[in-house]
Amino acid sequence: MKQSRRDEIPASAEVPSGVALSRTSLGGVAVSYKGTFLGWIHGRNDTWRAYLRTGPLTLGTPLGEFTRVEAIGQILAASGRCDGQSSTSADFLGER
Questions:
Q1: For residue 33, what pLDDT band results from cuts at 50, 70 and 90?
Q2: Strand order in the sheet with 19-23
Q3: To bridge 88 with a disulfide, which of 15, 21, 48, 82 should be the other Cys (CB 3.0-4.6 Å)?
Q4: Are 28 and 42 in contact, with CB atoms under 8 Å apart?
């Protein structure tokens, strides 16, 4: 999924290292890890729905409703893309 620079959402301390967020054309937020598109979140305020990418032109796998940071962590955990650095989804899901 190619995104323009203006669609990128600036990194923040609450987002794990290596994760990039960008706006999608459908109003959601794409979640990429080290350049690989993993899924997306859609919502606002404290309720975000997380979806794991399952392939091109598919609906994706719904992972549930979470806070924004938890939704990002769920996508990382479900994709198996966490690399064990200090900032991983486990940190944000209270598993460490």
A1: very high
A2: 8-9, 19-23, 29-33, 36-44, 47-52, 61-66
A3: 82
A4: yes
* DSSP string for residues in 4-67: -GGGEEPP-TTSPTTEEEEE-TTS-EEEEETTEEEEEEEEETTEEEEEE--STTS--EEEEEE-
Contact 10, 32 (CB under 8 A): no
* CA distance linking residue 32 with residue 22, whole number of Å: 8
Instruction: Confirm whether pTM is higher than 0.85.
Output: no
Pseudo-torsion of CA 71, 76, 77, 78, nearest 10°? 90
Residue 48 scores a pLDDT above 50 = yes
φ, ψ for residue 5, nearest 5 deg: -60, -35
